[in-house]
Amino acid sequence: MKKICFKIYFILLCVMILIIPLTACSNEGNEKVKIAEVTRSIFYAPQYVAIEKGFFEEEGLDVELTTAWGGDKTMTALLSNNADVALVGSETSIYVEAQGSSDPVINFAQLTQTDGTFLVSRTKIDNFSWDQLKGTTFLGQRTGGMPQMVGEFVLKKHSIDPHQDLNLIQNIDFANISSAFASGTGDFVQLFEPTASVFEKEGAGYIVASFGTESGHVPYTTFMAKQSYIKENSETVEKFTRAIYKAQQFVQKESAKTTAELILPYFEDTDIEIAETAIDRYKSQGSFATDPILDEEEWNNLQDIMEEAGELPKQIDHNTLVNTEIAEKVIK
Predict the structure, then answer these.
(1) If pLDDT is split at 50, 70 and 90, which confidence band does 115 have?
(2) Within this chain, do residues 109 and 236 fall inside the same structural domain, yes or no?
(3) Please, which residues have CB within 8 angstroms of residue 138's CB and are 6 or more apart in sequence?
(4) pLDDT tens digits, residue range 235-252?
(5) Residue 171 burial (CB < 10 Å; 0-12/13-18/19+)?
(6) Where is the SsuA/THI5-like domain (predicted)?
(7) How far apart are CA 38 and CA 204, in angstroms?
(8) What is residue 38's DSSP assignment?
(9) Order of strands across the sheet that contains 117-121
């Protein structure tokens, strides 16, 4: 009996010895890519879908995602090689280029193509018009960031001078804007989802307009990497872009509920219904890019918005900081 048990044990041990190297080889075969995202947001749903659905793994990539909490911190991580890829607003690549970088930051895959903020009113307004903001206190976003620039662009589009026609507050950190509004600061506030929908559900605020709808298509959030990294890791960047494209197609084809259930682990404090509402709202206004191509019209619109806000250091050609060849190859 002891001999039989020993034989069984020996066979199982051999099987384990054979399996372990195969598993190790499989993991070792995946190339690691470090992503730094500017913030954690439902606005970036396709990125989380790419991770959860295993699209990166299918391409032989092992992604490590960290949240930098700010455009400057995200770009610092990229430039210091603490990240291989950054997910951040395209305006940051323009700021870096204007400073005379010897290794430009190249936009290679677009994730979102509109602004992701909404105008939230403290009181319910049945028939909203933009001129109702005049004379009010508006809690905006930080100076130099895309939400603030788009916000001012839209206000001016509706003949509102943000610095003369209303009391504009911009000295509150991004992370504290929602809590400041909740505590009574401001008549209107510019918020991302899902915070805007949470406020509406709780009766603390009411969504009255979309800055994304008003401002048109812009490369609001894109994946970018240093030119040297793309040159040295061209196949990796192509695989990365293909995984993102798969996720973009998934989000477009599947229901908002399906996507919400998939990415909810990234938003543990968010109710599934709120997540679904936010995703549906972004889908309906075309905020999620359906492919990773960042075209010239969007790029020029971005620079128009930056120039209107007085934040454009200099005009930069589309082909200087944007690589569309990778995305074009992937979607074919």
Answers:
(1) very high
(2) yes
(3) 162, 166, 167, 168, 169, 186, 187, 188, 189, 190
(4) 999 999 999 999 999 999
(5) exposed
(6) 45-253
(7) 27
(8) S
(9) 167-169, 137-139, 188-192, 117-121, 206-210
Backbone angles phi, psi at 327, to 5 degrees: -65, -40
- Classify burial at 315, counting beta carbons within 10 Å of its beta carbon; exposed 0-12, middle 13-18, buried 19 or more: exposed
Task: Give pLDDT tens digits for 69-106.
Answer: 989 999 999 999 999 999 999 999 999 999 998 999 99
146 touches 39 (CB < 8 A)? no
Q: Is residue 54 part of a domain?
A: yes
One domain for residues 100 and 242 = yes
The range of the structural domain enclosing residue 143 comes to: 117-215
Residues 81 and 127 in one domain: no
- Closest residue by Cα to residue 103 from 93, 116, 113, 91: 93
Provide the sign of the torsion angle of the four alpha carbons 50, 54, 56, 61, taken in this order: positive
CA distance 138 to 170: 9
Stretch 44-66: mean pLDDT, rounded? 98
